[in-house]
């Protein structure tokens, strides 16, 4: 009885680790509104050069939704566009190119490339895409104190990016006004910090959560093990 | 038991990188290539040269030079097309390396993959174990040093181009490799 309990806990621990390892199979793409998503889905040239391909959205707890499908192909390159979605099938290069233009926040979700069959389940092309579309690039978490130089650089970068997007897609100008306000009147409360510390943040922010995740799981396992041991004394 | 698990997990992070025959050692001609590769790379394409094989360091160095000569002088390329070459002597020969875009598969795959070739023709024969080990060790090294994504994918040349490469026998082997997709 004791041993099965222990094994049970060990399995839960292992499964949770495997689950964590399985999640990275999703490839996350972060974009802001108005941007374009471009994804390359390779397929096996021997098997699928003459097959139809599709781009599907996977709503949480629902049936996959086919957004765009390629036409019946005879192994030649083709392209199909449905609204903001475009598929370019290149069978000579074994690659399916997906493009989603003028992204909106509602586009966020899980997507996948598949080999499409009208009458049976699709063959899934690895890897599923987790798209996260946010409203404004200025709302991304920034350090509490940033140099004026940094602030100006960030806002000029955003302004030029926003401008190029808005001239192409002619959408709402409100966010553009927001960023111009920042460039024209720098905050007098801003203080100076080391620029190099800002560039080191990305690496650190990956290592720390990973180590913390492992440590917390080990701790939980040990605690549960200790509790079950005690209940049998 | 728990401690052993934890230690093993940590050890998995730091693998030693095996030896590689650098360009200077196999007397390569200087590369004229300048297009880089965006790291970390997601794909690895395995091919064979379909040419002569070699099983000693001396003969493999010669073979590497032969392949480079063909690519640079006959095909007019900036360097030998492959990022790395594997000899039946069990050694890895440095081609364009991890950082330079190769010319091994085609316009879509060259910019997004590392091209590793086995020197020889593997339609009817298999490469010796030491050659396969050298390739796998090279790939492990690529991940450890950040050149390859940890979830990199291996493709056979014939999976992405109309070709017999890497040969029936070698293709069957790589299909059994953990990162093959």
From TrEMBL, chain A:
<keyword id="KW-0399">Innate immunity</keyword>
<protein>
    <recommendedName>
        <fullName>Triggering receptor expressed on myeloid cells 1</fullName>
    </recommendedName>
</protein>
<feature type="transmembrane region" description="Helical">
    <location>
        <begin position="203"/>
        <end position="227"/>
    </location>
</feature>
<dbReference type="InterPro" id="IPR036179">
    <property type="entry name" value="Ig-like_dom_sf"/>
</dbReference>
<dbReference type="GO" id="GO:0070945">
    <property type="term" value="P:neutrophil-mediated killing of gram-negative bacterium"/>
</dbReference>
<dbReference type="InterPro" id="IPR013783">
    <property type="entry name" value="Ig-like_fold"/>
</dbReference>
<feature type="signal peptide">
    <location>
        <begin position="1"/>
        <end position="22"/>
    </location>
</feature>
<dbReference type="InterPro" id="IPR013106">
    <property type="entry name" value="Ig_V-set"/>
</dbReference>
<dbReference type="Pfam" id="PF07686">
    <property type="entry name" value="V-set"/>
</dbReference>
<keyword id="KW-1003">Cell membrane</keyword>
<keyword id="KW-0393">Immunoglobulin domain</keyword>
<keyword id="KW-0812">Transmembrane</keyword>
<dbReference type="GO" id="GO:0005886">
    <property type="term" value="C:plasma membrane"/>
</dbReference>
<dbReference type="GO" id="GO:0002250">
    <property type="term" value="P:adaptive immune response"/>
</dbReference>
<dbReference type="GO" id="GO:0030593">
    <property type="term" value="P:neutrophil chemotaxis"/>
</dbReference>
<feature type="domain" description="Ig-like">
    <location>
        <begin position="24"/>
        <end position="115"/>
    </location>
</feature>
<dbReference type="InterPro" id="IPR007110">
    <property type="entry name" value="Ig-like_dom"/>
</dbReference>
<keyword id="KW-1015">Disulfide bond</keyword>
<keyword id="KW-0391">Immunity</keyword>
<comment type="subunit">
    <text>Monomer. Homomultimer; when activated. Interacts with TYROBP/DAP12. Interacts with TLR4.</text>
</comment>
<keyword id="KW-1064">Adaptive immunity</keyword>
<dbReference type="InterPro" id="IPR003599">
    <property type="entry name" value="Ig_sub"/>
</dbReference>
From TrEMBL, chain B:
<dbReference type="GO" id="GO:0032689">
    <property type="term" value="P:negative regulation of type II interferon production"/>
</dbReference>
<dbReference type="InterPro" id="IPR015510">
    <property type="entry name" value="PGRP"/>
</dbReference>
<keyword id="KW-0399">Innate immunity</keyword>
<dbReference type="Pfam" id="PF01510">
    <property type="entry name" value="Amidase_2"/>
</dbReference>
<dbReference type="GO" id="GO:0016019">
    <property type="term" value="F:peptidoglycan immune receptor activity"/>
</dbReference>
<keyword id="KW-0732">Signal</keyword>
<dbReference type="GO" id="GO:0050728">
    <property type="term" value="P:negative regulation of inflammatory response"/>
</dbReference>
<comment type="similarity">
    <text>Belongs to the N-acetylmuramoyl-L-alanine amidase 2 family.</text>
</comment>
<feature type="domain" description="Peptidoglycan recognition protein family">
    <location>
        <begin position="18"/>
        <end position="161"/>
    </location>
</feature>
<dbReference type="GO" id="GO:0048018">
    <property type="term" value="F:receptor ligand activity"/>
</dbReference>
<dbReference type="InterPro" id="IPR017331">
    <property type="entry name" value="Peptidoglycan_recognition"/>
</dbReference>
<dbReference type="GO" id="GO:0031640">
    <property type="term" value="P:killing of cells of another organism"/>
</dbReference>
<dbReference type="GO" id="GO:0042834">
    <property type="term" value="F:peptidoglycan binding"/>
</dbReference>
<dbReference type="GO" id="GO:0016045">
    <property type="term" value="P:detection of bacterium"/>
</dbReference>
<dbReference type="InterPro" id="IPR006619">
    <property type="entry name" value="PGRP_domain_met/bac"/>
</dbReference>
<keyword id="KW-1015">Disulfide bond</keyword>
<dbReference type="GO" id="GO:0030544">
    <property type="term" value="F:Hsp70 protein binding"/>
</dbReference>
<keyword id="KW-0964">Secreted</keyword>
<feature type="domain" description="N-acetylmuramoyl-L-alanine amidase">
    <location>
        <begin position="30"/>
        <end position="167"/>
    </location>
</feature>
<feature type="disulfide bond">
    <location>
        <begin position="17"/>
        <end position="141"/>
    </location>
</feature>
<dbReference type="GO" id="GO:0045087">
    <property type="term" value="P:innate immune response"/>
</dbReference>
<dbReference type="InterPro" id="IPR036505">
    <property type="entry name" value="Amidase/PGRP_sf"/>
</dbReference>
